[in-house]
Amino acid sequence: MDSEYVFISYARADRAFVDRLSAELRRAGVNTWVDTQDIVAGANWDQEIERGLFRADVLLHVASKNSADSQWLAAELNGFLASKGRAIPLIIDDAGPAALPAALRTVQWVDFRGDFQKALGQLLQGIVGLRGASPLPPAKEKSKGYAFISFATEDGAFVANLKLFLAERGYAHWDFHTSKRNYQIDYSLELEERIRNAEATLAVISPAWKRSSTALQELHFSREVGTPVFLLRLIDPGPTLVLSGKTFIDFSASLDQGFHRLADEMADVGL
Fold first, then answer.
1. Hey, CA dihedral for 28, 33, 35, 41, is it positive or negative?
2. Which three-class secondary structure state does DSSP give residue 5?
3. pLDDT tens per residue, range 100-150
4. Which one is predicted more confidently, 131 or 215?
5. What distance in Å separates the CA atoms of residue 196 and residue 190, rounded to the nearest whole number?
6. At what angle do helices 71-83 and 45-54 cross, to 10 degrees?
7. DSSP assignment letter at 180
8. Which domains does the chain have, with CATH numbers?
9. pTM, to two decimals
10. Which long-range contacts (CB under 8 A, 24 or more apart) does 157-162 make?
């Protein structure tokens, strides 16, 4: 995106509000950058967010009960303020004021708890310098979100095919081995944030995966926070307590058949 635009920083649970806000801003002639709209399917989630963030002219920080404990949103805000410095807080529920980061507590917010259109008008006044002379064309959705991939490095060749599969279905991806890390955040907190906000966790099961204590923790946490989990058996790991009684998608005999079933299973849960 070469023209001026605003970057919308938000918790995934507030996506419905952000989708509406982005659409309304674009109708008013303001370009927006939203992860699910502006990351090309199959791209590295972190690199694209960083590129979108630091090229933005204004950051809109969506404050809510869902954003209160987000270490990742705090890192986005701090990085942006250090490089640009223009951020506008948006309050969307009663927990929003208390959820504001310290850096934004002295900045006038826009209150979306009441009349949406009235609040939108106030926001447009605040970003008037970025408003175009005419409405922008509707943005094409480029990514549905991202999948968290849990795997051992030994299974990297299969994961490369898995990422192509995700790209064909409109999903980006994040994994600990190849995605860019945010070293401003504790490792375990970053994993929690990534898994909690993912559309699904894809666990590539193999003996190497079984030997990884991190992979087992990723699986347990995904189930705990309700992120859909798909167990992809690449190589039989042998008897495994954490997998006992669980259904899996078998890739050991045929990759094509495995990906066909994975597509069906994802469609069954609305992905």
1. positive
2. coil
3. 988 888 888 999 998 999 999 889 888 876 555 444 444 444 556 788 999
4. 215
5. 10
6. 40
7. P
8. 6-130 (3.40.50.10140), 146-268 (3.40.50.10140)
9. 0.55
10. 158/204, 158/234, 158/251, 158/255, 159/204, 161/255, 161/259, 162/202, 162/204, 162/232
